[in-house]
């Protein structure tokens, strides 16, 4: 596996801005991106901004108190990526296959319900 390309991050202690590039299975509109922003905020309290780039591509912008690549931010970032995957079906994050990213690697390693050889 090649290395994951992290988001673009800038800021200072207490206020970090990160930009992520997303590609999706489902078609995107600015309206469904706004609905996703509201759902993410409702579920996580995490404020994000999604910008339509193409019919299957968007830019995700986050602002966090903790640097998004620090261990303390992983739970929030993982939750955010999982929500976006559920809504839009992510194919890549920052031009890397979705399965390279932590929440999808672990979920795939565990298998989905019904994948058990015991059934």
Keywords:
single chain; 119 residues; alpha+beta; Alpha-Beta Plaits; six-stranded antiparallel sheet; 30% strand; globular
Structural commentary:
There is one protein chain. This protein has helices at about 30-45, 75-90, 100-110; strands spanning about 10, 15-25, 50-55, 55-65, 90-95, 95. It has about 120 residues and is α+β, with helices and mostly antiparallel strands. The protein has one domain: ACT domain (Alpha-Beta Plaits, 2-Layer Sandwich). Strands 1, 2, 3, 4, 5 and 6 form a 6-stranded antiparallel β-sheet that branches. Residues about 110-119 have low confidence and may be disordered.
How confident is the prediction overall: mean pLDDT? 87
**Radius of gyration using CA atoms only:** 15 Å
CATH topology: Alpha-Beta Plaits
The unreliable regions are 112-119
Report the CATH architecture. 2-Layer Sandwich
Quaternary structure of the protein:
single chain
CA-to-CA gap between the ends? Answer: 32 Å
Fraction of residues in helix: 25-40%
Largest sheet: 6 strands, antiparallel
The CATH class is: Alpha Beta
The helix/strand series, from N terminus to C terminus, equals EEHEEHEEH
**Beta-strand content estimate:** 25-35%
Number of strands: 6
Specify the number of helices: 3
User: How would you classify the helix and strand content by structural class?
Assistant: alpha+beta
Provide the number of structural domains: 1
Q: Given the C-alpha coordinates, what overall shape results?
A: globular
CATH superfamily: ACT domain
């Amino acid at each position: 596996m090649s290395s994951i390309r992290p988001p673009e991050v800038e800021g200072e202690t207490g206020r970090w801005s990160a930009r992520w590039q997303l590609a999706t299975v489902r078609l995107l509109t600015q309206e469904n991106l706004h609905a996703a922003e509201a759902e993410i905020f409702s579920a996580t309290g995490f404020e994000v901004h999604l910008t339509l780039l193409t019919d299957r591509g968007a830019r995700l912008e986050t602002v966090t108190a903790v640097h998004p690549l620090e261990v303390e931010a992983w739970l929030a970032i993982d939750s955010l990526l999982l929500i976006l995957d559920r809504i839009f079906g992510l194919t890549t994050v920052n031009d890397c296959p979705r399965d390279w990213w932590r929440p999808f690697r672990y979920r795939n390693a565990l298998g989905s319900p019904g994948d058990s050889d015991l059934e």
